[in-house]
Fold these 3 entries.
Entry 1:
Amino acid sequence: MAGPEISVVIPAFERISALDGCLHALAAQTLPPSKFEVIVCDDGSRLPVRDALASTLGALADRLCVRVIRQDNGGPAAARNRGAGAAIGRYIAFTDDDCRPEPDWLERLLRHFAMRPEALVGGGLRTTAGSDRYARATQAIMDFVYAEQERRNGLRVFSTSNLALPASGFNGLGGFSSMFQRPAGEDYDLCARWYGGGGEIAYAPDAVVAHDHALTLGAYWLQHFTYGRGLLQVRRRLRRTGVSLRPGSLPGSFHLRLIASPVARTGPRGAACAFLVGLAQAATAAGVLAELAVPTFRPKARQAVESF
């Protein structure tokens, strides 16, 4: 029998309930179960995922081919690489344990690959009906970034909440960089290396994943602070290639338009969201400063620095 056309890779750490919901969403895919597989890489959860979700895995066995592998805690980039290394599909689709793919997610991704078989594809993201204010603010940021990318040519970057590409191309790049030990920057870096190597990048807004960040104010700040650290790492690597994340933008103009975007879209009732978007940008700036002061990654003198 032919193997699956596409492999879904999910890094998982501790969020058992969220992962349970993600697996149920994948079991509801319109793509026949024989055409895809799901690989969960347990990134050293205290209670092993295989044990915690034994009843769910058993109940979904006739609708979902799931393999659970486990590694010592190494971060999401390492977990994605480990999962991708076990994949047997022609294409690999990445999502996260707190995501809920729409029922036609994989079917639509494969339609895009039928037209562009060698492309890296970023799918659409949205919040859920019950998302809190922090999730909505994070989504507003992503909406703005993706819309900006559609307005111009050049490098496009997508979140690993919804990103897919040919397995051969992913392996040819060497996967996600182990330089990124925190959950931030490894997805943009992968897109940049793909683009720098001449690879095609496409946006598939109809292949939708719902991503619900359940956050407190402190967790929201920390999330965007971590993004700032990762963003600086990506920019340092991009600088060596002459590629810019935002070509042609006036200094500061991107951030001002980003903060104003909720109000521009919904009027005065978007003011609270705009405040949180501004707070996220302050947290990102703080993360950049922290990374400048104490870099996460210091290559040894004899160590070859990764390049595009």
Entry 2:
Amino acid sequence: MLFPGWWGLALAATPGELPSLGLAALFAVGGFAMRGAGCTVNDMWDRDIDGQVARTKQRPLASGAMSMGQATGFLAAQLAVAAACVVPLGWETLGVSASALVVVGLYPAMKRVTMAPQAVLGAAMNWGVLVGWTAVQGAATLGAAVPLWAAGACWTMVYDTLYAHQDVADDTKLGLGSTARLFGREWTRPVLTGFVTGFAGLATYSVLAQGLAWPAVAGIAVATAHMQRQVMTADFDDRLNLNARFVSNAQVGGIVLLGLAAGRLMQEAAPGLVA
């Protein structure tokens, strides 16, 4: 959740300059709090089913180590920290940030009513792109950040579908939806290859439209190769293999960020092609 926020800051930075370190630090704290809040909401929704899934049965609410009252208090504290990070950035940024709460809150319910909850997760996990852009450029030109947000959503579809293959047996038993179940073993690789391609196309369009220098495109190319390697080397019968690919996406986020930052730094002080 943090990397997309930093992507938004880098995309919105002034040509010839790096993104603000102060804003990056604020986003780190706020992103940590919001990611935690998302996990708390998810565990509150899923407390009755987590105990029936091997991977999640030891979560605090599922195991009984924490009560719903305690979880509600913890959630309130997390949201307060996140709000404290956003309020100094102005009302426009606060509004864009607050709108993410609807998506975050709905995500846990989606597995009960759709076979593709990862689509909603992708929207939520990458909302930081929109927040980062707004914090620097304001909401009037927010459309310029939408392609990068959509690219991030494709990225999430890849890593969370691979991750969800760990739970296919339990999800099938409980009647819960996931793209791992929807695509199955036969179609997961070709479909995710399509999402990898979507990531590459949308992210590349985004940086070219904003006039970033070549390192931004190079970073996207390296990240794309990393993602495709995950898809092709995933072992759907090996939890450690799938978890390792999930965790390695911190590298994808970092590679894209470095490319964006370098691309803005090396860009001549001229406006992008998209306002």
Entry 3:
Amino acid sequence: MFENFNKVFKNKNHTPYIIAEIGNNHNGSLSLAKKMITQAKKSGANCVKFQTFSTNSLFSKKSFNNNLQLKRDSNKYTLKLNDFVKLKKFAKNKNIDFTATPFSTTEVNFLIKNLKVKLIKIASMDINNYPFIEYISKKKIPVILSTGLGSENEIKKAISILKKSKVKFAILHCISEYPPKIKKLNLNRIPHLKRKFKVPVGFSDHTIGTHSSLIALTLGASVIEKHFTLNKNMKGWDHSISANPTELKIITKFSKDINKRLGTNKIYRVETKKNTTQFRRSIVASKKITKGKKILFSDLNFKRPGDGLEPLHWKKIVGKYAKKTIEYDDQIFFKNIKNK
């Protein structure tokens, strides 16, 4: 397990790692969560990710002063920590990686000690929660850090903590809006972040549809995290902006051959000699050229196949004389011409 994620750090031509972010789209239902794991695997994802927060571990009482519905929803759409024991086991049986985003040190300890996860995700909301990042980094397991909500200095600071602890980590370009406006995406940050920090960079996609993830892959994203649902119309926090099974399959299928499509930046002919000959042109007579006639440029044409003289030789023919009559559309060769 997690072999595909480890490859992210080993070479440039790895297959991107695709995370189906189930988050809280299970709506507090263990059975729905299992169905989503099954479907994520069928759609080709490498990993399913959950969020382990409880109402008390994430929100202070001030959060609910003017929003009692938030508290009701939070209580409704979260699972108990022990539920994740069952889900991790279920994911293992389905042969798909399992990870989660913790929101407290208690949850970090639970994920590492009880579930023995091989990867921890740090949410965008914690990009400036440096004590929390340091606490996680000291656990010495690989980390994925989302950079949404972060300024450049905040991202640098978070990364410096991870580097100091010498843990493997990847960062995700992220816009923490649901969904973000297209003009805010700035997907060109992906190659920029790769050059700047010299670590694997991916994309946490909160947009509707698949286009942004596909573009991110083309720009070199090593990881794609995409919210996932079985039904976009389901009640809950993130269903409407999530990928359904068909959309997730589009992303995973594209990711599997992206490196083949991109290939190398070296310039060389890849077409076969047969195809090259079939598609290219040769010098032919545009009209009947009688024996002894001085050949003009207007006497020439250029047509398939390319098994005769290449067009670049036209200057060696114009001004010469025909040794014999050359019929219309016949290829012209040097043996057919003479100086006078």
